[in-house]
């Protein structure tokens, strides 16, 4: 009898452990993007360089979930960014600089997560712009990535809500706390966004506001050492739509970023060693993008985008014209090779010190810059 009870108890314990294991999962994932880039002008000279993340930032992460029953589960994601060229951490040396969050997700009501996360403009609008996809990525970003569609920065101390899919409609919002006692609004952030898919159409919109981001007023706030601009306020909004027919997708995206109390543009965005210092003034960037991609064969894709950016900054009104082209060949489901070219021309810069600078590269000494990259991407 005792032996029977022991066997029954052991079997029950094993069954319970197996069921618990089946209800939890942890996935290791990642992407490595390495290439060779030629640039016609970086600081006055042509450059041949090995590049990391010319299209997609190299990363690896741990993503997990635990089933809590009743359609509810606990979720988390820890994602690291790095350079495959030298092994250094990305996002200014943060261990999990791309994402770090934990939360609860419901099959019926959506998810609430807390940590370092993407804003709603990135979540909903960016996938409609070529820079927010693997068809253009880093180098296809709008000047200085002024609208953050290439997610140059994330939001610290943030709580985010993401809805489930209601017949094609998804929406959400985020709030990033300043985490400063007695200074609630200094270096905080908030955003909202939505997307709607119906048939071949996809529409999206998003809004983001930052207060005192990139400044030294509160270095523990929502946006700190990876801020694109040093400004008292940043308001970014945009809308977009695309249409898919047969093997082709065409899209239009409009975004506008308005900055108050602008002091400078960060090193990574400006492509300079010390950033660009500007007169404390307002600035505006209006970006108009036309993009398209075509699946020529199951293995071969073609993509292109044209962006016109009209701006007012530091007493002048620079105008950018940028064209990006890409073709990629899939060697397998996880590995592809690509060839990408980007051309940028800026005019009406006056004596501001602004020259052409393709995102992710160093600034040209003239108003024109051309970059060509041949690369390899491996996903796991």
TrEMBL record:
Q: Where is the Porin domain?
A: 10-348
GO molecular-function terms, A-Z: porin activity
Q: Where is the signal peptide?
A: 1-22
Ordered alphabetically, the record's keywords are: Cell outer membrane, Ion transport, Membrane, Porin, Signal, Transmembrane, Transmembrane beta strand, Transport
Q: Which residues cross the membrane?
A: none
What GO biological process terms are annotated to this protein in UniProt? monoatomic ion transmembrane transport
Please classify the protein's predominant subcellular localization into one broad category.
membrane
Location in or out of the cell: Cell outer membrane
This protein's GO CC annotations: cell outer membrane; pore complex
> How does this chain sit within the bilayer?
Multi-pass membrane protein
Subunit notes for this chain?
Homotrimer.
Q: What is this protein called?
A: Porin, GBP family
């Amino acid at each position: 009898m005792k032996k029977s009870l022991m066997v029954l108890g052991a079997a029950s314990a094993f069954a319970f452990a197996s069921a618990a294991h089946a209800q939890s999962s942890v996935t290791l994932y990642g992407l490595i993007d390495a290439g060779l880039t030629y640039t016609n002008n970086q600081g006055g000279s042509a450059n041949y360089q090995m590049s990391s993340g010319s299209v997609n930032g190299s990363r690896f992460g741990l993503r997990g979930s635990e089933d809590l029953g009743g359609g509810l589960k606990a979720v988390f994601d820890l994602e690291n960014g790095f350079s495959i060229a030298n092994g250094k951490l990305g996002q200014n040396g943060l261990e999990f600089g791309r994402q770090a969050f934990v939360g609860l997700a419901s099959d019926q009501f959506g998810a609430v997560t807390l940590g370092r996360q993407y804003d709603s403009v990135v979540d909903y609008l960016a996938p409609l712009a070529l820079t927010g996809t693997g068809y253009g990525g880093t180098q296809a970003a709008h000047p200085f990535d002024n609208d953050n569609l290439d997610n140059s920065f994330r939001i610290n101390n943030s709580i985010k809500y993401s809805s489930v899919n209601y017949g094609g409609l998804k929406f959400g919002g985020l709030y990033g706390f300043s985490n400063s006692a007695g200074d609630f609004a200094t270096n905080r952030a908030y955003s909202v966004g939505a997307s709607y898919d119906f048939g071949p159409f996809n529409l999206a919109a998003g809004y983001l506001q930052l207060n005192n981001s990139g400044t030294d007023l509160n270095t523990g706030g929502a946006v700190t050492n990876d801020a694109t601009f040093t400004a008292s306020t940043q308001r970014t909004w945009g809308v977009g739509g695309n249409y898919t027919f047969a093997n082709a997708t065409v899209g239009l995206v409009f975004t506008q970023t308005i900055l108050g109390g602008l002091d400078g543009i960060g090193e990574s965005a400006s492509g300079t060693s010390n950033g660009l210092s500007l007169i404390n003034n307002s600035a505006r960037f209006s970006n108009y993008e036309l993009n398209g991609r075509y699946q020529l064969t199951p293995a071969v894709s073609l993509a292109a985008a044209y962006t016109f950016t009209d701006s007012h900054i530091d007493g002048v009104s620079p105008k950018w014209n940028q064209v990006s082209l890409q073709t990629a060949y899939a060697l397998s489901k996880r590995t592809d090779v690509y060839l990408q070219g980007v051309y940028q021309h800026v005019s009406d810069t006056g004596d501001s010190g602004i020259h052409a600078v393709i995102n992710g590269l160093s600034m040209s000494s003239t108003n024109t810059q051309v970059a060509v990259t041949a690369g390899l991407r491996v996903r796991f």
